[in-house]
Amino acid sequence: MRLTNLLGLRLDQHLLRPDPRKPEISAIMIGEEETKNRVPLMYPLSSRTAEILEIWLRDYRPLLVQPGNPYVFPGKGMGPMTRAGMRDAVKVVTRERIGVEINPHAFRHIAAEAFLQQPLGADVLPFLFALRRSVFPLHA
């Protein structure tokens, strides 16, 4: 997921909850009007990822957010976290946890490399990352 889409995630638009009475989130959906390539994106969430997201939304996000802010990753006032804020947060956490600073954009490349190591990875990669055919050879 591109950083712009991550920062733009809203509680009221992008989190798919199959049963609105329950907190479980099964996927993140981003409409074509919000993506760089005008391709709609859907990211199914593993149960572990959904659990971590729920912990964030329930326990940590409320400590940082102004009431009424609709963003999953809130910034000051009613807006989303800034690009610099997310970039710096990711770099601090990766440095603390694995000893190497990794910026958010590098995660797309790391994930692409991981997919290429899997059977059918090269066939699935363009769809998962909404890559144009002209960009795909860079990851092959």
UniProtKB/TrEMBL annotation:
Protein name as it appears in the record: Integrase
Pfam families, A to Z: Phage_integrase
Keyword terms = DNA recombination
Chain ranges of the Tyr recombinase domain = 1-140
GO biological process assignments: DNA integration; DNA recombination
Alphabetically, the GO molecular function entries are:
DNA binding
